[in-house]
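Dear colleague,

Thank you for sharing your sequence with our group. We've completed the structure prediction you requested, and as agreed, I am returning the results in plain text so they can be pasted directly into your records. Please verify that the sequence below matches your submission; if there's any discrepancy, let me know and we will rerun it promptly.
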Amino acid sequence: MQRARSLDRLRSATEPFDLLIIGGGATGLGAAVDAAARGHRVALVEQSDFAKGTSSRSTKLVHGGVRYLRQGNISLVLEALRERGRLAHNAPHLVRDLTFVIPNYSWWEGPFYGVGMKVYDQLAGRLGLNPSRQLSREETVALIPTVETNRLVGGVVYHDGQFDDARLAVDLAQTADTLGAVVLNYCAAAGLIKEAGTVAGAQVRDLETGAEFAVRARAVINATGVFVDTIRRWDAPGVPDLVAVSQGIHLVLPKEFLPGEAAIMVPRTADGRVLFAVPWHDRVVVGTTDTPRPAHTLEPRALPEEREFVMEHARRYLAKDPGDGDVLSVFAGLRPLVRSGAATDTAALSRDHTIVVAESGLITSTGGKWTTYHEMAEDVVDHAEMVAGVDNRRSPTETLPIHGWTHEPIGPKNLRPYGADAGAIVSLMQAEPALAAPLHPRLPYQQGEVVWHARHEMARTVEDVLARRTRALLLDARASVETAPAVAQLLARELHRDRAWEEAQVLSYAALARGYVYTDPASTDRSAPAV
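Please find the predicted structure tokens below.
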């Protein structure tokens, strides 16, 4: 996946693409894979990096949604459980079975949640994982040694999926590229092209050079997440908002707070959400919240009250109370939820996806969640085929292997998320032994990975490497800042940048990473937490 080659293909196209997709998150990348797999000519442009926004800031779960079961949204649970099974089959290098424990502190919780999880198992059918069951107090402690034992009476165990969201996004981009799609990051849509009132493409700006050019297409898909209403107003200035923005945050703690391989699920918190403490990349991710936000941004920040809320629940369910100094990173993401009348409680809004086709033919796809990205992709491409007037073709992606697909065991733990590419990365480091050196003593990555990111995964900045190609920013924000100069130097060599570029990248990344360092909420600004 080479950016220069993709940019040349985009600029030199003499015929309209069948589909132009604006947005490189889960929705857009899924649509690009689906449309290219059907044989359509596809282009995708992303204003920043792939999965820069919501799609790299999830709870890292591929799940049916226990909360949606409680709400009675059985259709969404069925869809998500079906897609969970498909994703586990299509990306086995990124998706794994994870054990969850619901600790019970009242006698009625075991039977109550036990019945609910049996229904969850039955809905999954043949795509289900291991069955749920009730646990004794001793069995609960054996699975979660650090669970709060005061008043603990037992638990319920069930199984769901876990994945690495940003790595899946990169693999989807590579899958689309392999299938013939033109996929570009740092290439922003600057306006829509309209002919006789019909959307016929977009004016696009290469953010690395500032050059603008037209990209014509038979249909345009707006897959920009929380930004969809901005694109919709380019088409129809007076259109009402489709999306309500909700913020969710997560704290990342050292492994010692949840040393086993099982996760904790709290089925109902004070704000009505499910809360998780999940082992991930030898850390513990705790979250999330559901806070309505008045506006969208590429870099949301956790509010003080959100951090207090998550920390309070972490202390309530863990025997060892984490302190402020234990938090390795705090990250926030914005959910694009489809509005329902005048509702202001985002926790009550549906997580179903929605597709809207404007009079001009502009197609907007929003809502949904990572687990159901494949279903969303099929749906929006079905619509786009009709708008574009191209052949209606059956999607072959239900069993399509995603880039990196392998069931072969991979030795080095840090290389497992690369799947089938791991061997080539090892060969790269064998050819240049200095690249086998670790990036940082507190991070599980090697220098050779950075070179691979630049050569094969379209990494263009230090942030691309440390936030998404690796997950260093989330695993240890301070350590990621300390290793930024080494990453900048490696990238500069690969991308032919000068010393001034390196220094600017280090400064830019340090400023961004300050927002991920946990501090005392009482002394923190609401928009940009300080170190």
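Summary note from our side: The radius of gyration is 23 Å.

Kind regards,
the structure core
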